[in-house]
Amino acid sequence: MLNSRDMTFPAISLSKIRELDLSAASAAGCPLHLSAASGLVGLNAFIYVVADDELHLGVFSAEDRKPGHLIRLFDGALPESKLDRKKQKPDFEALTLLPAYGNYPHGALFALGSGSTRNRRTGALFGLDAQGALRGSPRSIDLSPILASLDDEFDDLNIEGAVVTGRELRLFQRGNKRHAENAIIRFQLSAVLDVLNAGRAAAIRPSAIDPVDLGQIDGIPLCFTDAAALPEGDMIFTAVAEDTDNAYDDGVCVGAAVGIVDKGGHLRCLRQLDHAHKVEGVDARMDGDDIKLLLVTDADDPDVPACLFGATLKR
Hints:
Layout: E1 15-19, E2 37-43, E3 46-51, E4 56-61, E5 69-72, H1 82-88, E6 92-98, E7 108-113, E8 122-128, E9 134-142, H2 144-147, E10 159-165, E11 168-173, E12 182-188, H3 189-198, E13 208-212, E14 216-217, E15 220-221, E16 223-229, E17 235-242, E18 253-261, E19 267-272, E20 279-287, E21 290-297, E22 307-314
């Protein structure tokens, strides 16, 4: 049980929509599914998913349950063994939609590595057309100018979510058992777009860092795993209580929750999910006074497909 906030509310029920199966694997010997889904953007007829153990973007239809397909973000190949793959992967943990700017008249998808190790500080930009389909080729981005200043702020940097709201890009720092500091990190969007557009090396610093305490489940701290924008500057987030002491190792997930923070970084609500699925990606749409959610999971097992779930949160 949550030991704080909203304990009296019933748990949110998840409805399984599909497994994230694929029409073709990313490489010979790899399974025909995504297993470690970690970031999600729903856009018109498309559902875009990044997985933290792939070099590809998953593309699924919002209109049917046909197998999805993969679009390569980076050249190269990752090892098949889980341990070696973990060491070398770019660890994409966040996916967000950027507004129109520069060479992207219809906006772009922005995938971010977690920053938890030096080789996890790479991102990717993929342009979109007017219908929300991918346009052109992806571009690799060095995230060091954005993430470098955060090493002094956090003992265990682990960026798990990214949201564009108003004139800011907000990154969601995930804590763990040893360093339980969850935080929302604010950057001026114009400064971030300058970095992405020009690729300049000069570091930029956040305009503010807002710590957020999410409480615990069974003695394990709830920690951010993703976020998405809502109207009027609010943001919805996912969080899990994972029994791990650091940003690198996996642990048992003892519970999960969704919640809302306002534009000032203040926690407005927090609701536990009815099952301890390790939810790592969220997309949100308003439906009257309700928030319709799409969520993807990470099974921490390459043989187990990630799943897409639906849920409703009453505001």
